[in-house]
Amino acid sequence: MTLRRKLLTLLTALATTALLLVAAGFWATSRQQAAHEELEDHLLRSLLLQRVDSTGRVLLRGQFAAVVADTPGARERFDALEKGIRDDLAQWATMSLSEDQAARRRAIEEAFDVAIAEIHATFALLDGGLQEEAFERLIDYDRRQPFAAFRDATAATLEAAQLERAAIRQRVERTRETVQLGLTIAAVAVLSLVFLFGAYLGGEVFRPLRDLNAALDAAAYGDRRSRLEEGRDDELGEVARSFNRLMDALEDDATGEDASGGVGLTGARAELQRRVVALDAWLRERESSQGGLDDEVSARLRQISETLERAIRFAAPTNLTMAPVDLARLVHDVMASFGDLLAARSVGVEIAIDPELEQIVADGPKLRAALLEIVRASIDSLPPRGGRVGFRAIGDPDDERWLLLEVVDDGTRGDPRRYERALAAQKGELDEAGNELAMAYDVIVSHGGRVEVDVTPGKLTRTMIRLPIR
């Protein structure tokens, strides 16, 4: 096999392995993406379920009684809460669900429909002026508890969601380990081939060239005993044999003999010159087409190193899909999600965003979901009508690498215990599965951030979030 073919074979193997490593990187990325999407869908379903459960409990009991008692604004709030539950159930139905998940969602919706039908029947009595009959129906409603089926259905679904979350996390961990193992094997294969290629160049190309150069230098100084190994069957072997014939002819010329079979010194010199010129032309061709043999090897090593670095970064276990996020758009989108509710309750809104803050690097969907829950908690602290809620985003004056987000409300119903439970649950100090605020805080912490809450009962609630801008 010629030297050219040997080098081309090794380079082809190296390029093929590099392509396999790139393919492995894409495969790892797709596996990780699928695992994160599954976890994200589960998080969204859990948030919807928690909202349906908490809102339904308020709607089917306390808010119903408030309407019957003719509390001002109770009927409007009841209608808004009912619409919110209907919207959440409809959104839930559009998601990718298994047969068991779809059945559980239908059970919750059917139980809700049964309870809400009795409530609307009571409202019909109120609309007809039959106040006493409506009170009697309310008492009978509390006695029979038709909302118990809804409560049991949501509780069973929450328990199933907790088990499902544990299973998803196990699958994500197994995927991470598989991806890491696959990329490690691919990386070892590439490094092994790189070392093999380097060893081949050192032993099969550069060493014979060094030996040829040393032998030519020795011959130039009159050493006619210098010889090269002739065992190779490539171009370098042909050069070695021609050199040895030249040296034999020089010795024969010095002794007056022609051991080369009539070729003589002139013929051997011409043969050697032809072989050296051919080798020089081949090397020049390699230099002109590949930028030099050393440069080619160096360039390929750099390409492989860069490819390997990208692939390892792709396996690092994460639970987030980080990308640039437009901060102003994110804040306005979060607040706009509550537009109808804020307008219906005549809530004042203030938004302040530092114009110097354009983008942050974060998992946009997860961060949005977390901020929605934090703002929702502030809205819950407000009175049924009126109040103000503000959202401020500024850079940390002490460290430009950090972002400060602040959600403030002047509600009189802020409960410090609610926030304390959420913070404790996020830290693992309290087992409170399904706590929306705890899940939101967990998203903030997973971004490398920190959450602090300051509640002044009866006056205001301030949630302070510190996030790295990256």
Shape field? elongated
Q: Would you state the CATH class of the domain at 16-179? A: Mainly Alpha
Taking strands numbered 1, 2, ... along the chain, how are they ordered across the largest sheet?
Answer: 2-4-5-7-6
**Percent helix among the residues?**
55-70%
**Quaternary state, please?**
single chain
Beta-strand segment tally: 7
What's the helix-strand series? HHHHHHHHEHHEEHEEHHEE
CATH-assigned fold name of the domain at 16-179: Four Helix Bundle (Hemerythrin (Met), subunit A)
What is the strand content? 5-15%
Mean pLDDT: 76
Q: Provide the low-confidence segments as ranges.
A: 262-266, 297-318
Based on secondary structure, the structural category is: alpha+beta
What's the CATH architecture of the domain at 16-179? Up-down Bundle
| Radius of gyration from the alpha-carbon trace, in angstroms | 39 Å
How many helical stretches? 13
Give the biggest beta sheet. Answer: 5 strands, mixed
Report, as a whole number of angstroms, the end-to-end distance.
54 Å
Brief account:
This protein is an alpha+beta fold. Among the domains are: 16-179, Four Helix Bundle (Hemerythrin (Met), subunit A); 323-468, Heat Shock Protein 90.
Describe the structure.
By secondary structure, this protein is an alpha+beta fold. The radius of gyration is 39 Å and the shape is elongated. Helix 1 packs parallel to helix 8 (293-313), helix 3 runs antiparallel to helix 5 and helix 6 runs antiparallel to helix 7 (264-290). It has helices at residues 3-68, 74-94, 99-127, 131-144, 148-220, 235-255, 264-290, 293-313, 327-336, 339-344, 364-381, 416-426, 436-446; strands at residues 323-326, 348-353, 359-362, 388-395, 402-409, 450-456, 460-468. It is built from 13 helices and seven strands. The two termini are 54 Å apart. Among the domains are: 16-179, Four Helix Bundle (Hemerythrin (Met), subunit A); 323-468, Heat Shock Protein 90 (2-Layer Sandwich), CATH 3.30.565.10. 70% of the residues lie in helices and 10% in strands.
